[in-house]
Specification:
134 residues, alpha+beta, rbstp2171, 3-stranded antiparallel β-sheet, 5 strands, globular, XkdN-like_sf, XkdN-like, XkdN-like protein
Length: 134
């Protein structure tokens, strides 16, 4: 199989992965509960980046907290952070408030890291060089 055939057989519209983000999430048997995440497309990344950036008269401000929340909310399949019943059950009014209520700061950071890695970010150049050699 050449690269063109590989690309044709592997479009990016359904790249998902089950990941463990914290030892806190365990079922009744002590087994880890996994989050199902999906990769961001270039368009999704740009949309979230733009929504997290404010352009003022003299400076541009990037809100990394807002960026991380939107990455997690929009790219986590399970659990569904947009689930209206869950939002209502916890007495919050938005997916952003829900995430802040159910995830610790480090858990959110880990979740976002896993999503960005699945999306092709944070791949070390040395890993790519090593893989290319093989």
């Amino acid at each position: 199989m050449n690269l063109q055939e590989f690309l044709n057989a592997n479009p990016i519209d359904d790249v998902t992965e089950d990941v463990v983000i914290s030892p806190r999430f365990k079922d009744e048997n002590g087994s880890p509960l996994k989050f199902t995440i999906k990769a961001m497309t270039e368009e999704e990344f740009e949309d979230i980046r733009k929504r997290s950036t404010q352009v003022g008269k003299k400076k541009v401000e990037f809100d990394s907290r807002k960026f991380n929340l939107h990455v997690a909310i929009n790219n986590t399949i399970n659990p569904d952070f947009k689930n209206a019943d869950s939002i209502k059950k916890l007495g919050v009014s938005s997916p952003e408030e829900y995430v802040k209520r159910v995830l610790l700061a480090g858990e959110l950071a880990t979740l976002v890291q896993k999503i960005t890695e699945l999306s092709g970010f944070d791949v070390e150049m040395s890993e790519l060089v090593e893989e290319a050699k093989n």
